[in-house]
Amino acid sequence: MSSPDSADLITPALPDVHTWTGRPGADEFAGLPGGPAVLLFVDEHGTPVQLLTTQQLRRFVTSRLSEPEDVRRGRTDLAEVVRGVRWRRVHCQFEARWW
User: Residue 69: CB partners within 8 Å, gap ≥ 6?
Assistant: First the structure.
């Protein structure tokens, strides 16, 4: 019996996806929903980079990936690596923790 590929597990768990090429601008995320979600940042190959929960998906992704360099001081520049986000909407923080 072979072990499942990570993509086989991620796709049904986080069914919604948005991808882009290059460094994203703030307008890149206008189509993302607001509200609570479990999200996964992925690289250009779909490899997981960071799994997170948030109360405002669009605001969180925009702030992490399109902040000006001087505001990001001391934080990793995820926009250099991340080329997509997968997510699942949740109804509350409790659901996000136990998802």
Answer: 77
Is 1 within the bounds of a domain? no
Domain that holds residue 71: 6-98
27-63 pLDDT, tens digit per residue, is 889 999 999 999 999 999 999 999 999 999 999 999 8
Q: What is the rounded distance in angstroms from the CA atom of residue 86 to the CA atom of residue 11?
A: 8
83-97 pLDDT, tens digit each: 999 999 998 877 777
Could you tell me if residue 78 is inside a domain? yes
What is the C-alpha to C-alpha distance for residues 30 and 87, in angstroms, rounded to an integer? Answer: 15
Question: Which run of H or of E encompasses 59?
Answer: helix 57-65
Please, is 65 exposed, middle or buried when counting C-beta atoms within 10 Å of its C-beta (0-12, 13-18, 19+)?
buried
CA distance 87 to 53: 9
Whether 91 maps to a domain, the answer reads: yes
Instruction: Say which CATH number the domain at 12 has.
Output: 3.40.1440
